[in-house]
């Protein structure tokens, strides 16, 4: 008789803990950091393993349009990040960033002339 497929075979945590954390993330409007903090308060230490960067375009009302995760925070990653939401949502009039130089380099490659300012 064949063993059932184990969805959680690549994770070090138990399936119950993973399901709880995913439920918190999906059911409530929490960021991954908030979910990690809630788990830590309950004695569950969530380790990400490798450093990743989360890129999120946000509209003028503060709604996250989509999410994008990369290993690097350089010009090719910024270019890939900017192309995706621009294709889906159109070109923005103003972009506010955290001041990373790769944003400006990516905008130059896209030939888009926008007012780019650091987020304060």
Summarize the structure.
The chain has 120 residues and is an alpha+beta fold. 40% of the residues lie in helices and 12% in strands.
Topology:
Elements: H1 15-27, H2 32-41, E1 53-55, E2 68-70, H3 75-89, E3 94-97, H4 101-110, E4 115-118
Parallel strand pairs: 3-4
Antiparallel strand pairs: 1-2
Helix pairs in contact: 3-4
Strand content: 5-15%
Uncertain residue segments: none
Q: How helical, in percent, are the residues?
A: 40-55%
Quick one: how many beta strands? 4
Please identify the structural class as seen in this structure: alpha+beta
Q: What does this protein structure show overall?
A:
- The longest helix has 15 residues, at 75-89.
- Helix 3 (75-89) packs across helix 4 (101-110).
- The chain has two domains: 11-49, no CATH class; 50-120, no CATH class.
- It has helices at 15-27, 32-41, 75-89, 101-110, and strands at residues 53-55, 68-70, 94-97, 115-118.
- The chain is an alpha+beta fold and 120 residues long.
- It is 40% helix and 12% strand.
């Amino acid at each position: 008789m064949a063993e059932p497929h184990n969805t959680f075979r690549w994770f070090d945590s138990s399936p119950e803990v993973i399901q709880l954390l995913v439920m918190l993330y999906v059911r409530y409007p929490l960021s991954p950091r908030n979910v990690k903090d809630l788990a830590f308060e309950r004695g569950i230490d969530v380790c990400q393993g490798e450093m990743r960067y989360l890129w999120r375009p946000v509209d003028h009302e503060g709604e996250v349009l989509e999410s994008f995760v990369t290993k690097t925070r350089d010009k090719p990653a910024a270019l890939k990040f900017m192309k995706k939401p621009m294709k889906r949502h159109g070109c923005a009039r103003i972009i506010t960033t955290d001041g990373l130089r790769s944003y400006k380099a990516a905008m130059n490659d896209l030939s888009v002339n926008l007012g780019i300012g650091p987020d304060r």
